[in-house]
Specification:
By secondary structure, this protein is mainly alpha-helical. It is built from 17 helices and no strands. Helix 1 crosses helix 13, helix 1 runs parallel beside helix 14 and helix 6 runs antiparallel to helix 7. 39% of the residues are buried.
Length: 370
C-alpha cells in the first residue's frame, strides 16, 4: 500500500544507524556516546514498529474479506516462501562472517546448535550463540505468523476490543506481578510480550476498510496525541530509564504507531505521503527486509576489523562507520535482494521461479552488443 513500504525502509535504516551507534560506544544503555546522539539508541522501538506494521499489512486483505485468511496452510506457505529464502541466505552469510572475521556476540562464535536453532527459526524458544544479533525478531515474527490465523478467528467471531483484551491483559498482568512491576527480559521468549503490538497492527487494519467517517478521522494527529504522553515520560525519566522499561514502553507506543499506519494507509497527511513515495525512500522500502537481515555483520566488521586501522576509538569510529558501513550495507542489501528476496516476492512457487529464469537470461543477453 502507498507509503507503507517507505515507512518500512526508514525503520530499517534507523536500525542500521542504531547498530552503528551501539557497537561504537560501549556500556549500553548508559553508553559513552555524546548526549546529542541519544536519539539513535532506541533501535528496539524500530523493531516494535516492524511488528505493528507486519500485523497491519498482513491483516488488510483479510479485513476486506470478513477477516478470513484464505486458508491456514496457504497463508503459512506464502509467509514461509516470502521470509525464509532471504533469511537462510543471510544466515549463511552471517555464519561465514562470524566464523572468519568477527563473532556476532560476546558468547563466542556460532556452534552446530546455532545452525540448528537459527536454521529452524527457533531462536525465540531456544538459546544458542547467535550468528547475527538482528535475527532475534525473525524468531518472534515466525511465532506470530503461526498465531495469525487464530487471531483472525477471534477477530472474526467477536470484536477488535475482545481480541486486544485477550492478548494484552495477560501481558499486563504478568508485568504487574514482576518485582517492582518491571519485568526483566531475557534473550528469548519475547513473542508473548510483543504479541499485543502485532495485534494492535492487525486491529488497525480494520480502519482501511471502515466507513468513510472512520477513514476520514485525523489519524495522523491522533497518532501524535497518543505518542505525546509516552515521549513526555521518556524525556522526564531519561533514555536509560526508557530502555530499562521497554516492557511497558512497547505496549504504550503501539497505539500511536497503529494510528500512524492508518493515517498513511488512508492517504494523509499529504506531505508525508509525498515524502514516503519519493523514489529513494520507496526503493529503500523495497529491499528493507534484506537490509535488516545483512547489515549487522557488515557494521560489526567495519567497527571491529577495519576502523581501528584508520581512526581512533569513540566518535571518529562512529563517523567512519557511517561513511563506510552505511553505504556498503545499503548497496549490499540492494544486491542481496535482487538474488534472494525480490524473485521470491514476484514468483509464488518454484515452478514459476524456474520458468522465469531462462526468460531473465534471455532478456539480459538481448541487451548485449553483437
Amino acid at each position: 500500500m502507498l507509503g507503507l513500504d517507505g515507512l518500512r525502509g526508514l525503520a530499517a535504516l534507523y536500525v542500521v544507524l542504531f547498530h552503528c551507534w551501539l557497537y561504537t560506544f560501549p556500556g549500553y544503555p548508559d553508553s559513552s556516546a555524546p548526549p546529542w546522539l541519544e536519539g539513535l539508541m532506541f533501535g528496539r522501538l524500530a523493531v516494535v514498529f516492524f511488528l505493528v506494521l507486519s500485523g497491519f499489512s498482513l491483516a488488510i486483505s483479510p479485513a476486506r474479506h470478513g477477516w478470513r485468511s484464505g486458508g491456514v496452510s496457504q497463508f503459512l506457505r506464502r509467509r514461509a516462501w516470502r521470509i525464509l529464502p532471504p533469511y537462510w541466505a543471510a544466515l549463511t552469510l552471517s555464519l561465514t562472517i562470524s566464523w572468519s572475521l568477527v563473532p556476532a556476540s560476546h558468547s563466542g562464535s556460532p556452534t552446530g546448535t546455532s545452525i540448528l536453532v537459527y536454521g529452524l527459526v527457533a531462536q525465540d524458544v531456544f538459546i544458542a550463540p547467535t550468528p547475527n544479533g538482528a535475527f532475534w525478531s525473525i524468531g518472534v515474527e515466525a511465532e506470530l505468523y503461526l498465531l495469525f490465523p487464530l487471531l483472525l478467528l477471534i477477530r472474526r467471531r467477536s470484536s477488535a476490543a475482545v481480541l486486544v483484551a485477550c492478548v494484552t491483559l495477560p501481558v499486563i498482568a504478568r508485568g504487574l506481578m514482576a518485582a517492582g512491576a518491571s519485568p526483566v527480559e531475557g534473550d528469548n521468549w519475547l513473542a508473548p510480550h510483543l504479541a499485543p503490538v502485532f495485534v494492535a497492527g492487525l486491529v488497525g487494519a480494520g480502519i482501511v476498510v471502515a466507513s468513510d467517517r472512520v477513514r476520514s478521522l485525523p489519524w495522523g494527529w491522533l497518532a501524535v496525541l497518543a505518542a505525546l504522553p509516552v515521549l513526555a515520560l521518556s524525556v522526564m525519566q531519561g533514555s536509560v530509564w526508557t530502555v530499562n522499561h521497554y516492557f511497558w514502553i512497547d505496549l504504550a507506543i503501539a497505539p500511536a504507531m497503529t494510528m500512524l499506519l492508518a493515517a498513511v494507509a488512508t492517504g494523509r497527511p499529504a506531505i508525508l505521503i509525498r515524502l514516503l513515495t519519493t523514489r529513494p525512500i520507496r526503493s529503500l522500502g523495497s529491499f528493507s527486509y534484506s537490509l535488516y537481515l545483512i547489515h549487522l555483520p557488515i557494521v560489526m566488521t567495519v567497527i571491529r576489523r577495519v576502523a581501528p586501522h584508520f581512526v581512533s576509538p569513540g566518535l571518529p569510529v562512529f563517523w567512519f562507520t557511517l561513511v563506510v558501513a552505511l553505504p556498503v550495507s545499503v548497496l549490499g542489501a540492494w544486491l542481496f535482494s535482487k538474488i534472494f528476496e525480490i524473485p521470491f516476492k514476484r514468483n509464488r512457487s518454484w515452478r514459476s521461479l524456474i520458468e522465469v529464469l531462462p526468460r531473465g537470461r534471455l532478456r539480459t543477453g538481448a541487451g548485449l552488443p553483437r
